[in-house]
Description:
about 30% strand; Jelly Rolls; single chain; 2 helices; mainly beta
Amino acid sequence: MTFRSVRGDITDGNAEHLKREHSLMKPYQGVGSSPSSQWDFWGSTLVTSSYIRLTPDERSKQGSIWNTVPCYLKDWEMHVQFKVHGSGKKNLHGDGIAIWYTKDRLHPGPVFGNQDHFVGLAIFLDTFRNDLHGMDRSFPYISAMVNNGTVGYDHGKDGRSSELGGCSAEIRNREHDTYLAIRYSKGRLTIMVDVDDKNEWKECIDIAGVRLPTGYYFGASAATGDLSDNHDIISMKLYQLMVEHTAEEENLDWTKIEPSVNLLKSPKDNIDDPTGNFRGTTLTGWKVFLLLLCSLLGIVVCAVVGAVVFQKRQERNKRFY
């Protein structure tokens, strides 16, 4: 997907809109396993005064950090400052970071250090290509997935069958700060990146028809396999978006909403459309045959109708002679 510059004031960033109970910032006070902690971590996660390292640049590591306070905001925007770096050369590093807004937290598993068949939203910053046939996109690749617990993440296909959209972004071994923004407002999910040291957001994903409940947890996780990287979280800042809702929307029990996406086509159709963009389904195989058959039948019907009309006109003209 080609990046499109967007206005830098997508979030005003005012301090009064920052929700500190859902934000993770230096010097990372409130991180730990005590009852008063607002963030808890697991696995290889290391908390320092400058960064939170989810995994070191070592093989077969998993780590995560999770907000212990459920979020009841209907409209929000999360800004994540992160850093992915390591000694591995091009294509010899992995696996990546995931940002979560899910029903459950601290459930380790195979999806970038978190459980599969999750319930909620995931944003994947995938740095390693598993699908050698998917050469139409470059890595690192950022994608989004909404799940109600029934769909598994297919590592072998880099999650292509379940992604809602995505974009390539050079996020690894950058000398400057790198940022990700996740915005959810009035059923619209927008993902943006700022990774080129230009202090401007570039749109990566923009999808309407997304339904997410309140009362879920924010978190971040990362994993390494045979290849590795340092996966660091510098900050996660959640902003409340001041949005008006209808009386009907306000009266809904938002905690009972099931995560879903109302799309023109199923995410599984992305196998035919490898870009991950929701355009018309690719016309291949039987689809082309059906289209040609329908066109041929249409031509035949038009020809028959035309012949009948022409014959009737000829008969009518003969009556006047």
